[in-house]
């Protein structure tokens, strides 16, 4: 097996063919699984799941050690009315019926699928990021909340992940925007309208673009796809559904699972922040105070599909702007660093659209090869 790959493999080293272990109703076939092969993970998948387990546990311990007192203090202060709250009282509040109707419509839309009614159990997700912009592994969190003992169903897992991990992540982003708008004194009805309209518009646009890509890009989401449309993130999520939804975590992390030692990462992730806290709490200038294990472990869990190239570019950019420029030109850094970050993100998006529709789609790049077009394939 390759060291770095977005695929999972069978006992002969070939990409795992999940169709061989499914019934015509797309349910798990135990006998076919025993005849075919167990699922084997490349080393990067093993490291990724271990790091995600550790990051999830480290987030709780890190928050309690470094920010427990601040959270308790802020909770008590939240009972006192602030200037922003007094100002926002002049705006017409958003009625709770708007949110209730939206939630009801979403629930009915999902319940319209007859498959989603086969299992009437419900799960709830309580995500505690601890600090703004400090997110835990909601994806693994939600998959672990998934039923464990009985035979899993892949479509159930996908629906469950959408209604927990993805919904909670987007909800936290919306809440962060609402918090910013609260302190910017933007009327709540205006914020809610902008969020809902943008969500509806972007949903239709994404579906249209996706259908267009499936109809116009040959061999899309395969290793032979043109122009790098190999869908690495989608393949990782698909392989994750094999592990957590088709075969089930019990066969990987149970008593007889070959990857059971990975569960020790929970204990290691919970203990490690305590050591960092003990080393750094004695001095405000201690370098240990700058070590954030949840961020470190959580970022590395993006491998795969991320590679060393992704992290090396990030490390170089952060070193140049957050160390060199910040030390030599702090005024410039404080005024323009956030603007530069937004400019780099937006320029990448506009550049991709321009290059694809301006050069690739018309066929002007057919047969054109150089190091930059081939290195990602190696």
UniProtKB/TrEMBL annotation:
This is Uncharacterized protein. Residues 89-106 have a biased composition (Polar residues). It holds the Pfam family OPT. Residues 88-132 are annotated as: Disordered. The keyword Protein transport applies. It is found in: Membrane. The chain crosses the membrane at residues 43-66, 153-172, 192-214, 261-280, 300-325, 337-361. Keywords: Membrane, Peptide transport, Protein transport, Transmembrane, Transmembrane helix, Transport. Its main location: membrane. It comes from the Eukaryota. InterPro entries: Oligpept_transpt, OPT. GO terms for cellular component: membrane. One of its GO terms (molecular function) is oligopeptide transmembrane transporter activity. Belongs to the oligopeptide OPT transporter family. One of its GO terms (biological process) is protein transport. It comes from Trichoglossum hirsutum. It is a multi-pass membrane protein.
């Amino acid at each position: 097996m390759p060291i770095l790959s977005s695929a999972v493999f069978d006992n002969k080293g070939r990409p795992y063919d999940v169709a061989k272990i499914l019934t015509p109703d797309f349910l798990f076939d135990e006998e076919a699984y025993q005849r075919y092969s167990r699922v084997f993970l490349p080393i990067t998948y093993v490291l990724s799941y271990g790091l995600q387990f550790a990051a999830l546990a480290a987030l709780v311990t890190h928050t309690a050690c470094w920010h427990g007192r601040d959270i308790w203090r802020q909770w008590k202060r939240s009972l006192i009315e602030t200037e922003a709250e007094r100002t926002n009282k002049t705006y017409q509040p958003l009625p709770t019926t708007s949110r209730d109707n939206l939630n009801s419509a979403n629930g009915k839309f999902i319940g319209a699928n007859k498959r989603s009614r086969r299992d009437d159990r419900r799960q709830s997700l309580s995500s505690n990021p601890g600090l703004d912009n400090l997110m835990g592994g909601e994806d693994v969190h939600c998959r672990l909340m998934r039923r464990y003992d009985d035979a899993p169903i892949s479509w159930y897992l996908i629906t469950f992940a959408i209604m927990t991990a993805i919904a909670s992540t987007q909800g936290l982003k919306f809440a962060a925007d609402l918090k910013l708008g609260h302190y910017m004194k933007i009327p709540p009805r205006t914020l809610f309208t902008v969020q809902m309209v943008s969500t509806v518009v972007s949903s239709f646009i994404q579906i249209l673009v996706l259908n267009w890509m499936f109809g116009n890009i040959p061999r899309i989401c395969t290793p032979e796809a043109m122009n790098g449309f190999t869908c690495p993130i989608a393949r990782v999520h698909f392989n994750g559904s094999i592990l957590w939804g088709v075969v089930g975590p019990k066969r990987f992390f149970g008593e007889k699972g070959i990857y059971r030692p990975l569960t020790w990462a929970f204990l290691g992730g919970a203990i490690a922040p305590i050591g960092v806290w003990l080393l750094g709490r004695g001095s405000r200038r201690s370098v240990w105070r700058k070590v954030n294990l949840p961020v470190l472990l959580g970022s590395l869990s993006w491998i795969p599909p991320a590679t060393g190239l992704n992290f090396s570019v990030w490390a170089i950019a952060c070193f140049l702007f957050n160390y060199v420029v910040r030390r030599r030109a702090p005024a410039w850094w404080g005024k323009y660093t956030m603007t530069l970050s937004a400019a780099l993100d937006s320029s990448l998006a506009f550049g991709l659209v321009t290059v694809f529709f301006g050069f690739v789609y018309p066929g002007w790049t057919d047969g054109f090869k150089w190091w930059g077009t081939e290195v990602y394939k190696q």
